[in-house]
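Good morning C.,

I know you're traveling, so I'll keep this short. The sequence:
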Amino acid sequence: MNRTRLNNIIFFVVTVIVLIVSLVMVCVFSGFEHEMKMFKTMLNTIVLILLLQFLFFDPIKFVVLAIDAATWGLERQYQEKPETGHYNHYDYLKMRLRSLRSQLKITEEHRNEKLNQKYHIIAKDVYIYGSYFIMLLAFVLVQQDVILYYNIRNVQRLLYENQSSTLGLNQIYHLNTVYDYIETTLINPFDSNLNHHDAWEPIEQIKMLGVVRLRQVRPVDNHIGLDAPEWDVRTFLPEWQLPYQRIHYTEKFWRIYEPWQPLVHNPSLLNGLLLNFEHYGSFHTYPELNGYVAFLKLSKKDNKIFLKHLKDYSWINYNTSALFMDFTLYNADANMFTMCTLLVENTAFGIQIPSIKLESAFLIADLHQQSSLEFIIVIFYFLALLQFMSALVVKIWFDPREIRKRWNQLDIIICLLNVFLLMLTVMRSTEVDNILNIVEKAAETEFYDFHRPIRLFLFTLVVMGFLISLTTIRLWKVFQFASVFQVFTRTLYVAWSALISTAVIILIFLMAFGISVSIINGDYSLNFYYLTNSIVSCMCFAMGFTSHLNSADMFFGGSLVGVILYLILVFVLAIILINVFASTISAYFEEVDKMAKEKEKRQINFIQFLHLEYGHWWSCCRNWFGMRKGYRRNNRTVSQNIRRELDDQERYEANTRRIIIKEELTEYEKNLNYRVSLERSYCLVSIMRVQMNLLERMLFGDKDGNLEPLSDSSYTSDSDIPEMYRKEKKKVTFSAN
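The tokens, ready to paste straight into the viewer:
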């Protein structure tokens, strides 16, 4: 390392230290202490400014400079660099020694320039895609929280099963029980008179936002056919009588005369995308933006009067196909919203089928509520994403034909998904802010619908899943330099027709078996009730996932039929067909591996390329961490240590010769090994000569490594030294006298 470079490094290090120390001194001794909230806000502002500078202002600056240079056409003035220092013999010999040591490692196999360029591109791709994949995984992990699972599990258990003071949803067997369930489970535990904290009695940290919305769906005609039913939206008198007549003082007593109002929604793009879903029941599918709605009261007394009125005037009768009970729970300690949808399905046969659906999400994603680790990981993820997008833009900018490649198109899809993820996050924050403003200004007797922000939150999770899948596929392409990935990919390419044929046979048999099991046992087991559930259950059983299945579910059609079905599932599907599929892959894999070994050329692998290309950094790390092994004499000479090491190697080879069977080398490999050995021998001789020359000049030379010229020694002459390293000679001039 020359003196100029050393001075630059010292100047850079000193500058960084001065800046860091000055920043710390200002933050500590500025006269006031920043709170963590203020500190995160300041740090977030700095990061946003840097991102804006990198994404918007720098490109604008470069565009302006490019337009200016193209318009005025000024020629740049290049200045030659001055001489950077004085070199002597020591510098030359040390540089020559480093060059020879590197040459000792660079064999004939390392001089394949085409292969080196390929490995250069692979190393760059591994760094870009690997860093982005790791930061994406870290970003997804910090966004997840297991408390969502436990919250859904506990709330579902409290609402669906019987408790000491509440009725469970699974205990609703007829329509009159619906009123008891609403009173005991949805009114009494949330009564503000009993609980001064206005919280849920089973879990005091949870509070209901607004009131419960009851929504029922009624068909126009009770006729049951193959077509989907038409849902009623007309207005009725009490007890669902027609024709409808406007009664006096309806505006004031509408909760008595007309408690069920047709559902009115604002038609918009977001409502169409986020709210226009179907609720799948056991008998029908029910629209979410249809039906009649009624709202409970805030106090327990008013709710009891309201329920008595609904029961007296038969507002919920056997023409009610489905009754939905929607409400929102909020846990302030966990910053968690839970949208609860309870469904009681009244079938045409007088049977009530209850079900529950819960959706929990962290909607208030405030910067001040994030931990430092989450904030740091988000910053690093954005930096990795910017690096990923920058590499893609540069590649397409210099060669627009690259956009036609499938893998570059996959990179573009990954970038678009990241942009879409950012848009969903902004939309979710906007929706939450709007609803919270409504909650702040409106009365507590209204229903607050959090379906839109919660579903935006769920959509962000889906987009993250697609991002991980696509990034994994892209990383698979990068790892094609490894022989294992190459063989596996080649196996899939060669065996795709045989694998698809076997998979089709398995699928046909599985569908036939699933249909037969569903027909025989579907009326007695939910695992085989639906055709899709039956096929999935049979596939899980064949693959060994039997934790949620019971073999007794196949014996409802009789013991003999159950034994036959069980034997067919175990032996035909699980043993024969699945093993045929696995053996097909194994056979093709062995064949492709054998072909790859026959066509394999002797060349360096990617790890050897990295070891040689970045060997300097590895040696620096070993020096910094003290990993370099020094030479120890152990009271022996150099010759004795060399002889001892050679004897140990011969002894090891003799002991392992019986275990390791070496393949016979080809003629080309033998010649290559001979050339490599000969080349390394000459290189070692050159290294020893340079070392001896360097040692001689250190012992007998001056401070610049110059030796006194001797008449009888040609070895110490400067004839083999370049002109710039030779000793300066004084010019001799002769006068005319």
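Safe travels,
E.
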